[in-house]
Specification:
The chain is of the alpha+beta class and 299 residues long. The protein has helices spanning 16-40, 74-77, 221-230, 239-242, 244-247, 258-266; strands spanning 44-51, 56-63, 69-72, 80-87, 92-102, 107-112, 133-138, 146-158, 161-166, 178-180, 186-193, 201-205, 219-220, 272-279, 282-289. Among the domains are: 133-210, Thrombin, subunit H; 232-289, no CATH class. Helix content is 19%, strand content 35%. A 6-stranded antiparallel barrel has the order 1-2-3-6-5-4. A 6-stranded antiparallel barrel has the order 7-8-9-12-11-10. It has a two-stranded antiparallel ribbon with strand order 14-15. 35% of the residues are buried.
């Protein structure tokens, strides 16, 4: 979803007065983005994740609620066995495990191995208005600490859960990163993006973080996976969860045939996956643990 830079040009008929009117607005917008970036950057991290199969991926997160607490998207760490947080100033800290998560809202609270005072971001729990300018910071395609801007396009109810539709370009690696307003407050967490569309991305509003318990007992990664494995799969309730296969930071690409689909499933035996079936305008989602598939010709 990396978008090319679109440069707008004006015709030669533009008057000198018009040029002077436009310049202060452009400078002001750029200046504000700079201030927001400098303000929030110390709070933002790239999450380096090794999953149970030994595969490596990146996502994003932000320090919040406590000096050793990370807010991110659940799908970034749902199958993790090792996670490290890397900050823009080079600070690297191990992530001990998961404090709490909500798979339906694609949110998770993680705990760093040590507190990092002075890095907590400010979270806004108020509902933001449509057409608000917003910014996202993260690691699209692994390019860490990148900032992009856009508009809050709409506030939507997706499968019964409130989500922000934003026009900021969000790519694999952005997942879990902060979406910010013009005061530099975190208003949401980047979650998923719609395939085959331009700048059609979604974030979980910050107020949903209040549903998580940041005082819950910490589960180290191995213990978390054991607990998840002992529970039956729960059907996904949001498109954020449904987008895991697409948005889990480069883990999946477009499938063009049923044979490709079954081959992809064979690579995920024992893992929990979500499949989206679209028939016209109707979209159904199914979450299940992939069973071992019999060899061809086996009964």
């Amino acid at each position: 979803m990396i978008q090319g830079l679109k440069q707008l040009t004006r015709g030669s008929a533009v008057s000198v007065v018009s040029v002077f009117l436009f310049l202060p607005l452009t400078a002001s917008a750029g200046s504000n983005a700079e201030k927001i970036y400098r303000k929030v950057l110390p709070s933002v991290m790239t999450l380096e994740v090794e999953n149970r199969l030994g595969e490596h991926f990146v996502g994003s997160g932000v320090v919040g609620l406590a000096d050793d607490c990370v807010v991110t998207a659940w799908h970034v760490v749902s199958d993790a066995r090792l996670v490290s947080a890397v900050f823009a100033d080079g600070t690297r800290v191990k992530v001990k495990g998961c404090i709490d998560h909500n798979s339906e809202r694609d949110l998770a609270l993680l705990q760093l191995e040590k507190p990092l005072p002075g890095r907590k971001a400010v979270f806004s729990r108020g509902l933001q208005g449509v057409a608000t300018r917003v910014y996202v910071i993260g690691a699209p395609k692994g390019y860490g600490f990148s900032i992009a801007d856009g508009l809050l396009s709409q506030v939507r109810n997706v499968d019964g859960i409130l989500q922000y539709q934003v026009s900021c370009p969000i790519s694999p690696g952005n997942s879990g990163g902060p979406v910010l307003n013009e005061r530099g407050e975190v208003i949401g967490i980047a979650s998923w993006t719609k395939a085959d569309a331009q700048n059609l991305s979604f974030a979980v509003p910050s107020r949903e973080i209040g549903l998580l318990n940041n005082k819950a007992p910490l589960l180290a990664w191995d213990n978390l996976q054991l607990r998840l494995a002992s529970k039956p799969p729960v059907p996904a309730a949001t498109s954020g969860a449904a987008a895991t296969a697409e948005a889990q930071d480069g883990k999946a690409g477009a499938l063009t045939s049923f044979d490709e689909f079954t081959k992809r499933l064979q690579q995920s035996v024992g893992k929990q996956v979500t499949v989206v079936v679209q028939e016209g305008a109707k979209e159904n989602k199914y979450t299940f643990t992939v069973p071992a598939m019999p060899a061809k010709g086996a009964k």
